[in-house]
Write a structure and sequence with these properties.
Shape: globular
Number of strands: 0
Helix content: over 70%
Order of helices and strands: HHHHHHHHHHHHHHHHH
Strand content: under 5%
Radius of gyration: 24 Å
Number of helices: 17
Structural class: mainly alpha
Length: about 475
């Protein structure tokens, strides 16, 4: 007697999953379209909204084409070695898979923040909504799982495990304990795949014997990654405002993203040293570092900027004496959350005899903090608590990091090819001093401009409509 109910229930479950997937994918597409349009408008471009949407559609179609090609095509084992980059195809697939697994962990966190009110409404609906938010990522994960199965190496097997666990974790509605277990296992497998790759990579070593070069570099990368992952949330927890966000999820996000930024920067530095363009190694590492900070800033806009205390901005208008403490607090938080990354990358530069690059890194970090503070202050998005989830779209956090990434790329071309080796250190010292002076002037402008900025705040964007 139950067979008809089972027969009718299964299509209804599938329909609920598909409807949730479609709705969430559509909403996420619209959010990305608005965010990209706001970013281009802030940079001085005025593209029509339809053009931005068409560009995103083209990007999705291109991604689907790549997924289809990667599913049926087995590339040559040589990989990037013919062009001088010491990575074979199994190595590249393993690295990208490990990074994608960690990105899927962040996607689950993003779903929890954006769709908290829909949780536990219906298990099939929740599965569909989670799938819609990461639909393209899931397709990429499936393609990389097939690619990893084609290569019988240890790092690829570990990457498969990380992808399978992260895919299940991002879709399934699990209990908190299960989420923690799966997240820890995914991070362990992803990190282990990178460690296995580093352990077999003789290109990291300066000679032909298994000596201190490979061992010390691998240990330094691992130590720096662990240090950034542990110290960043601890420093933020100690120095953050008492009313700032201190949830376990926020601290976990800080830990994962800080560790990934250092890990990628140090790996890029080690790889570029073994390419035909070793003079660009420190500059490309700097570009990767600040490219990671772009996402770091934008995803934590509520922590790193005056928008952290958006409601307090109205109270400050009533008491101008609160202006400087608020600005100082935001600058202090911005400094604290990048200090472990900067210290470890400086140590990595110094041990690699890139002394001027370490000085340039400190100067660029100072410039990035001051530019970001001024850009956010000039274009602050103050919204009520009910709209606070849209802050990452409205905020201009990350523009300073994008500027510094561009400067690092310019330095790689100008100082790497045009300037002789003998004068390169002199030019880097001059550039570092100039950037530090600009950072100091911009910081002074932030304090001088703060009272006028607060007086000119309008309440139009803060009203619930």
């Amino acid at each position: 007697m139950n067979s008809p109910n089972v027969t009718h229930r299964r299509p209804r479950v599938y329909a609920v999953v598909l409807s949730g997937c479609k709705a969430t994918f559509t909403n996420d597409f619209r959010r990305k379209s608005r965010r990209l349009h706001d970013l281009l408008t802030g940079l001085g471009f005025t593209p029509p909204a339809a053009a931005v949407s068409n560009a995103l559609i083209f990007g999705h179609l291109l991604t689907l084409l790549i997924i289809g090609a990667g599913t049926v095509w087995t590339p040559e084992v040589a990989g990037l070695t013919p062009v001088g980059i010491p990575f074979s195809t199994p190595d590249v697939v393993s690295i990208v898979s490990a990074l994608l697994a960690i990105a899927l962990l962040q996607s689950r966190r993003r779903y929890t923040k954006a769709h908290r009110s829909w949780k536990t409404v219906s298990a099939p609906l929740e599965v569909g909504m989670r799938s819609g938010l990461v639909l393209m990522d899931l397709a990429l994960a499936g393609m990389f799982i097939l690619q990893n199965l084609r290569w019988h190496e240890g790092s690829n097997l570990l990457a498969i495990g990380a992808l399978v666990l992260s895919t299940f974790l991002v879709i399934a509605p699990l209990k908190r304990i299960a989420v923690r277990v799966f997240a820890v296992l995914t991070i362990v497998l992803s990190t282990s795949s990178l460690i296995a790759l580093l352990g077999d990579a003789s290109w990291l070593e300066g000679d032909d014997t298994l000596g201190s070069g490979l061992t010390h570099k691998v240990l330094l990368i691992l130590a720096g990654t662990v240090f950034a992952a542990v110290s960043t949330p601890l420093l933020y927890r100690v120095t953050a405002h008492p009313r700032a966000l201190r949830g376990r999820g926020v601290l976990t996000d800080l830990s994962i993203k800080a560790a990934c930024i250092f890990l990628l920067s140090s790996l890029v530095l080690s790889v570029m040293e073994r390419t035909p363009w070793p003079w660009t190694a420190p500059f490309i590492a700097l570009a990767v570092f600040f490219s990671g900070l772009v996402l770091y800033r934008s995803s934590f806009a509520r922590l790193f900027s005056p928008e952290t205390l958006g409601f307090a901005l109205f109270l400050v208008r009533l008491r101008p004496s609160w202006v400087k403490p608020l600005i100082i607090r935001s600058l202090l938080t911005a400094i604290v959350v990048v200090t472990p990354l900067t210290i470890m990358l400086c140590v990595f530069f110094l041990l690699g005899n890139y002394d001027q690059a370490a000085v340039l890194l400190v100067a660029l970090v100072a410039l990035e903090i001051s530019v970001d503070a001024l850009a956010v202050q000039r274009r602050t998005a103050v919204m009520p608590a009910s709209h606070i989830s849209k802050l990452a779209q409205k905020s201009k956090a990350g523009l300073g990091a994008a500027l510094c990434a561009g400067l690092a790329v310019v330095f790689s071309g100008v100082l790497g090819t045009a300037a002789p080796q003998a004068t390169q250190g002199l030019w880097l010292t001059i550039a570092s001093g100039a950037l530090s002076l600009v950072a100091a002037l911009l910081t002074a402008l932030v304090f001088i401009d703060a009272p006028a900025w607060l007086r000119e705040l309008s309440a139009t964007e803060t009203e619930d409509t």
